[in-house]
Amino acid sequence: MIDVSAKGNTLRYARASGVLRAAHVTLQRVREGSVPKGDVIATARAAGIAAAKRTSDWIVFCHPIPLDWIEVQCEVLDTELRVTAEAKSIWRTGVEMEALTAATAALLNAYDMLKPLDQDLEISDIRVDEKRGGKSQFAVSLATPLKTAVLVISDAKLAGRREDRSGQVIKDFLANQPVSLEVSEVLPADTEKIRQRLRDLVTRENIELVLTSGGTGLGAGDVTPAATASVLDREAPAVVQMLHRHGLERTPRAMVSREVAGVMGRSLIVNLPGSSRGAAEALQALFPGILHLCVQLRQAEDRDGSDD
């Protein structure tokens, strides 16, 4: 199976369909309710819903998904029984296999009920018609990459006593994002130096996204949140809520984090944990949604500039 534990939950939706071709007279008996085995439509619908709930039992690499909704509809046409199945789930991976399974099971049950009446039945055109959700739905297209800076806050890393693994993790992640990494530095855990560097990045170097790593714990030397908060014009509490929720779902140690996020001028500043694992998980939680926030800041700047 694919490891999806790093992903966050989003609303997933899929619609699949398929067709059972049969003689007109056969489908007329479906309409009349005179098929010897019983109500074809009701049975097919129930079978599809039941099968969707057990998709992972027979699709080998399919994750067991907590389905929030599954619906199967059957439409009797002149020479076709058309089945449409829809599924929803708030989870880490898509529900297209559940929708396909529902449509297929409904068609197979209809086939079984009609085969004594028609020797020329044919199932065809089973396909996914639509799917939504996941990071691909929220992908952001940028005309120019976001000018980005990474600041690692650590006295030990600055002195060379500890390897800067979190900074490397962040840079590796950003390499696959629509950003331009303009600055990558290690700073001491000094409130004034952090504050001044943030101001310079935003006001002098026109950095649009600043990611800090480290100094967010409960120790006396963990000054990054206070330094960050002192330069912000507006905080972005939902960004921090996302970080905390994502972290706490994976380790209770996330309780010690005190990240701050917000806007300074037209730039977004976000604190990340200092551990490499924590930083990686935080980035998984933030992207690509955080890009949308940066695009909004760009658009606000364009609107303000057009008013001058």
How does this structure look, described?
This protein has 308 residues and is an alpha/beta fold. The chain has two domains: 10-134, Molybdopterin cofactor biosynthesis C (MoaC) domain (Alpha-Beta Plaits), CATH 3.30.70.640; 139-307, Molybdenum Cofactor Biosythetic Enzyme, Chain A (3-Layer(aba) Sandwich). It contains eleven helices and ten strands. The strands form two sheets. It has a six-stranded mixed sheet, sandwiched between helices. α2 runs antiparallel to α4 (96-114), α6 (165-174) packs parallel to α10 and α9 packs across α10 (276-286). It is elongated and about 85 Å long. The chain starts with 9 loop residues before the first strand and ends with a helix. The mean pLDDT is 93.
